[in-house]
Sequence to fold (160 residues):
Amino acid sequence: MKRELRIRVNGDLYHLFVEPHRTLLEVIREEIGLTGTKKGCELGECGACTVLLDGRPVNSCLVLAHEADGREITTIEGISRGGDLHPIQRAFVEHGAIQCGFCTPGMIISTKALLDRDPKAGRREIRNALKGNLCRCTGYIKITEAVEAAEDMMEEGGRR
Ligand code: FES
Ligand code: FES
Fold:
């Protein structure tokens, strides 16, 4: 039976009625219509579904929607502002780290979480933060370089 759910996604409040077994990933994509968050393994292994829940990265395929009741969610659609790409997104574009549309949203969300808590993260911290985001085709070198470039851009521009 559907139960009431109130969640704030990218600053907008949603008042929904959702069955208890539905995941946060399903609600974000199918009820709210934000399809930037990708459905990959649905087992917590690939990171394609990563969102921020109260500022912390989670695999939304492993979170029941009702566990997020009353909480704040940020998806990839909430990272840019008014049509301007976030420095992390610009760095990914400029460094050839947009390798496919499937893993990239999760990579960027995990990067945002990392740089919010550690703006001067080194290579080891970057690798550690992205270890839950799998790329099955291209590799991680350009992604790591893009995260380093994003740190510089954010420090210069003062944007978080
Ligand atoms: S779809 Fe959630 S971790 Fe793969
Ligand atoms: S570039 Fe997306 S899975 Fe490899």
In short: The radius of gyration is 15 Å.
